[in-house]
Structure formats: C-alpha cells, structure tokens
Amino acid sequence: MLTDLYIPGDSLLHRARPAWKLGVLFLYCTSVFVISHPLMLAAGLALVALGYGIAGLGPRDAFTAIRPALVVLLIIFVAQLWLETLSLAAYVTLRLMALLMAAALVTYTTRASEFTEGILALLSRAPKWVPKDKIALAMSLVWRFIPMIRAQFDEVREAQRARGLERNMLALVVPLVVRTLKTADEVAEAITARSLD
Amino acid sequence: MTTRDITLIALFTALTAVMAVFPPVTLPLLPVPITAQSLGVMLAGGVLGAKRGGLSILLLLVLVAIGLPLLSGGRGGLSVFFGPTAGFLLGWLLAAIAIGWMTEKFWDGLSFVSATLICVIGGIGVMYAVGIPGISLAAGVPFSKAFMGSVTFIPGDIVKALIAAAVMVTVKKSYPIIGQAA
C-alpha cells in the first residue's frame, strides 16, 4: 500500500493547519536565502532544531531528510572549497541542509490526506472555469493506480525473467505501457457506465 | 477533457511513480546508475501529448509535494523542492510538455530517428536548461561547474531517450493516443 512520510504525533506542529505550516516554511526559506548572514543561518538552524524538538522528532529524522541529497551536498561543498573558502563552503552547504530539514519537518508532521483536503477545500472556492471534479477524480485515481501498476510491473518482470530479459528495459517498459493504455480504456468505460461524467 | 483523458493522466502519473522502483541499470565506465523515472517523463509527453503529458507530471509533482515518497530512492515531501536538484523537477514538467508538443507536431511522419531527436531535445536539452541553473543558484557554484557536474548523467539520459523513442514508435503503431481528440 501507499504510505506517506508522515510520522505520527500529537505536538503543536502536528496539530497546526497545513496552510500555516506552508506559509511559515515559505517565509523561513525566503529569509534564510535573502538575508545572507552567518547569524541569520545560525538562527535558522536553531529554529529548525527547536521545531524538531517541539514535534518530538530526533536527529535521526533530520538526517533522513538530508540523506538523499548527501552526495550532491558533498559535491557542492568540495566545489565551493575549491573555488572559494572553507567558511563559504560550510555556509552554503549548511544553508541547503537547513532548508531541507525545515521542509521535511512540514512533511513529517502533516498527513498527505490533510494536504489533499486542503487542496480540495481550496478547489471548492475556485472560480467556475476550474474543472474541480476532474482534478479530484485524477488525484483519487492515482492512489488506486500506483499499487495496480506496481503489481502489473511485477507480473511483466516475472514473465521477462522467464525469458532471461529482466534487465532489458525495453522488454519491461513496452508491455507495461501498452497494458497501462488498455487499462485506461477499461477504467474510463467503467466510470462512464456509472454516470460519473 | 473526457473521463478517458483524466484516466490516462492519472495512469501516467502512477506509471512514472512506479518507474522509481525499476531496477537501476549500470553502464560500464559510468559512475551513476540509470534510473528509469525520467523515462516516465519522456513517455508521458511522447505517448499522451503536451497537455495530458504535462498535467500528468504536474500531478506527480503535487503528490510528491504533499508527502508521498514517489521519487526514486523513496524520496518525497516538500524537501525535494528545496534541495539543490529542485530545478530538475521543474525541468521534468517542461520536458514532458516540450516532448509532447514536438511529438504532436511531427506525429504523421514519426519514426524512431525523429522520436529519438524529440526525446533528446526535450528530455535532455530542456531538462538540463532548467536543472543546471537551478543547481547553480541553490549551491552558489558557477554555471559552468554545475554543468560539468551534470554531464555524467547525459550518457544515461541518451539511453533513456532511445528507449523512450522505441516505445513511442511501438505505441504509435499498436495503440495510438495522440491524434485522437484531446
């Protein structure tokens, strides 16, 4: 099943409204980027640490947020060190880490369904020309389709492994895409038959 | 937009998400493994066309932003949009639209060669034109250095462009989607 990156909890940050969290995150990132001063960065890092503390999350969770970008961060650090000075290299890398951790904090404390509800609430107030029900339909369909296509992919891979082709990307992709397109016709017919259109 | 269009958009969003778990292919002499996810971006444009392909990638990015780990390596959440490679995510959207637009333009005489060219221009040209300035901006390194760092990914992307082109031509023959009313 599809799970989000939410970490359960009952802190102030978990209970805050998603729109507020997004607003604060946006403000945070802008100020850390616009006010280029080491003191601002130190304050920013302290703020992130405070946020993780309030949410009851540890350094491990903060590291999880940075880990996928670790290689890129290292390359940037080395490039800066080579082009500029050690202090600037540390500054740029730490600033990126602060942004990554702050953004991840919002993701950790907000369920994907809360965001979805927020988007749908926004849509309900949107002007008439916005195809609200179609956007809502597309979003809910993806939730169902991801496990389905993953299962289809496993089937295709099994079949191609029997032929010794499981490392051949073309042999994996073509059957998967054609099956996907066939599914589209069936699902669309099923939806139309239930008069949802 | 018919119900079928909506279904196709959602399916390609899901397909691109699933491609994150494709077994990565390593080429000899290349330091970086090739992940299939940007192949999904090329296919969304090349199979569905500009409008539906672009919407399908936009939907993927929205779902990633609200916290679903749909990018390769299980990445997701808001932090990927604030990382140094965030420009490439915007690049995905523009690449899908560009590839879709070109595929629609050259649909009647679409061959493996022209499809490959389309994927290279859109999936490499447009993608890097957005992604590299993004790295340069976020990391404060000069454009040329960011470019050098990204060059290692280009051979893999060419392989993906070839695969995407082969799929586009096969799909055009067996199950065409572009060319019908969008």
What's the domain count of chain B? 1
CATH fold type of chain B? Arp2/3 complex 21 kDa subunit ARPC3
What is the quaternary state of this protein? heterodimer
Radius of gyration of chain B, in Å, reads 16 Å
The rough form of chain B would be described as globular
* Count of helical regions of chain B: 7
Radius of gyration of chain A: 23 Å
User: Strand pairing plus helix content of chain A: what structural class?
Assistant: mainly alpha
CATH architecture of chain B: Orthogonal Bundle
How many strands in all of chain A? 0
CATH class of chain B: Mainly Alpha
- Which band does the percent of strand residues of chain A land in? under 5%
Please indicate the count of domains of chain A: 2
Uncertain stretches of chain A? none
Task: State the total count of DSSP E strands of chain B.
Answer: 0
Largest interface, per-chain counts? Answer: A-B, 70 and 62 residues
Q: Residue-averaged pLDDT of chain B, rounded?
A: 86
| Bulk shape of chain A | extended
Q: Could you give the order of the helices and strands of chain B? A: HHHHHHH
What is the helix fraction of residues of chain A, given as a range? over 70%
Indicate the mean pLDDT of chain A. 86
Summarize the structure.
Chain A has 197 residues and is mostly helical. Chain A is 78% helix and 0% strand.
Polypeptide structure, described:
The complex is a heterodimer of chains A (197) and B (182). Chain A folds into 2 domains: 105 residues, no CATH class; 66 residues, no CATH class. Chain A is 78% helix and 0% strand. Chain A contains 9 helices and no strands. In chain A, helix 5 packs antiparallel against helix 6 and helix 8 packs antiparallel against helix 9. The model of chain A has no long low-confidence stretch (mean pLDDT 86). Chain B has one domain: Arp2/3 complex 21 kDa subunit ARPC3, CATH 1.10.1760.20. Chain B contains 7 helices and no strands. In chain B, helix 1 runs antiparallel to helix 2, helix 2 runs antiparallel to helix 3 and helix 5 packs across helix 7. The radius of gyration of chain B is 16 Å and the shape is globular. The model of chain B has no long low-confidence stretch (mean pLDDT 86). Classes of the chains: A mainly alpha (197), B mainly alpha (182). Chains A and B meet through helix 5, helix 6, helix 7, helix 8 and helix 9 of A and helix 1, helix 2, helix 3, helix 5 and helix 7 of B.
